[in-house]
Here is the input.
Amino acid sequence: MRAPRDDRPPTIHDVAREAGVSLPTVSRVLTGSTPVSKKRRDQVLAAMKRLGYRPNGAARALVQGRQPIIGIVTPDVTYGSAQMVRSAERAARNAGYVVTVSVIDPYDLTRADTSLDVLLAQPIVGVIVLDFDRYDLKDLAEKLAGLPVSTISSGGDDHLRHVVVDDRRAARELTEHLLALGHKTVHHVSFPGPHGHPHPRELGWRDALIAAGVPVPTPIQIDPTLEGDQYVRAGRPSVNELLRDPSLTAVFCGNDQIAFGVMRGLTDAGLSVPQDVSVAGIDDEPLAEFWGPALTTYRLDFDWAGAAALRALLQPEETNERAASSTFGLVVRDSTTKPKG
Amino acid sequence: MRAPRDDRPPTIHDVAREAGVSLPTVSRVLTGSTPVSKKRRDQVLAAMKRLGYRPNGAARALVQGRQPIIGIVTPDVTYGSAQMVRSAERAARNAGYVVTVSVIDPYDLTRADTSLDVLLAQPIVGVIVLDFDRYDLKDLAEKLAGLPVSTISSGGDDHLRHVVVDDRRAARELTEHLLALGHKTVHHVSFPGPHGHPHPRELGWRDALIAAGVPVPTPIQIDPTLEGDQYVRAGRPSVNELLRDPSLTAVFCGNDQIAFGVMRGLTDAGLSVPQDVSVAGIDDEPLAEFWGPALTTYRLDFDWAGAAALRALLQPEETNERAASSTFGLVVRDSTTKPKG
DNA sequence: CTGAAAGCGCTTACAG
DNA sequence: CTGAAAGCGCTTACAG
Here is the structure.
């Protein structure tokens, strides 16, 4: 039944024999759980080196009942999610965990299923779901049932540990900023939400328009199957649709990438930003301030959120945090101004 | 010794009892290795559902001797590495593996050590190292000794399975493009290589200048500890250094992000691109074509490379591939032109 | 400080 | 098609 020795890497057993000590002794120098005499410790260390021994995480995990792996599920790899992944990864590593990232496209459920199954077949401690808003909640919740899950979303869900990055509020404030400048209304190129539902960013935009009692233009939808780094491509063509409304003076875009594309499209159409049309994004990517004109946008707490989601997962008692750091807020730059005339 | 039942999730054993079948039967419906009668299969499935059973990957891994996890080590999360991670992840998933990503900063070896140790303590099949050029080879190779490793680098290493994305050639061709336009020489803002060594992109630039017999300006170094998405910030300040040389007419930047920052800095200094100074990047990020002016750059085979590195890891016999697809090559846009006069 | 033994949850020949 | 048993590599009480 046992595979021939050479097929498998050396085990603790080989090390023990090589070092002339018992199995538990090897284990002890590995874990440091119990003191081991210097002499034996050195023998063991030398034997490990000679054999090229590497501990088998699966075996260790089996015994200890849990494995230091945390799964991260993200709908795409945009600036924001990359930031959250990075900060969650850093926090996880500091806590002794390793992070496994699965990009699960809410618009490609067949592949998504495979991805999730592969992820969930791993011995993981729990799962962090980024931009939870974009998933069809029931499906995902069912799949994850029984596992510790922490989510980052715009609103939070009472049934799950969650961290709130308030996209909806950000979108509302951004829209209010444009209205306050004197625009009669604000158009919107929307970031895709879950199947058939608007993203909270679209809801926040709508909130502001309705509260102000101004007309609500039909939002322009971009192709939801675009890859995360291709949103900029969606911006340019959407300009054609925007320009059908001659009253256009201000656009709020579902993220900075889309805004970059829209600005480019407007320029190509002979319009200037912000003189003819004001444009705002959301995310505050590093390039936003370097664009010409520098982009008005909204800084979200991505760095904070990743780490907070990890805390929520590991320490449920202190859960359900809400972004409150000073890095959250409107960033007014050069791409928005008063309407002409 | 056994932990109280309620502390641990249900096992195959619980399912077997609940379903009134034997242990191997449950295992068989799980793996599909052997046919199971419809009646029992249904009983088992129902029991699993009732109990919320989820297979324990660690146990499975232990038995099978290998675990479907592949580690990816990357120095940062820039556009190129994000692309490679994505394509490797996709290929891995299709092959039934899950991918674990560790961002390991070549300039922060203390943290790097922890990261690597956590990663290597996991039961992984092998490791893919992205942008291998940026690491201090000996250290890393020693750590990874004995594990299957595949690398993506500019040159390849005979001791390791590797995939070549020829940065050096790309940098050379880009520099040649600028020289061919009539520039007397080309300045360089360099992308950080491994400690104390130039990155292949810098070498390629130097190759071209030396081959052309033109003077080689001192390359401008950016802060190597910058995060991957912050390179754009390095571009602007480097303009001050560039402008010390009054003969400046062309700059090749170590990546597109740096080029964006440099273009911004030049504009801020009252110079126009490309009339006063030509600027080229390397990577061809999605934004390169949307920038004003659209950036001349070099498209590298990131998508291909990630998948190829996975193949090299899993099928060493067909290893050591070299980028050859049609997506590899110079992309001339608006940011480069002939020198004035 | 050290060793013999049991057990983590699962899969895989083996024998029907 | 099905069940009893061994074993994957490691850790952890237990007994000295």
Summary: The first helix of chain A runs from residue 12 to 19. The longest strand of chain A covers residues 69-74.
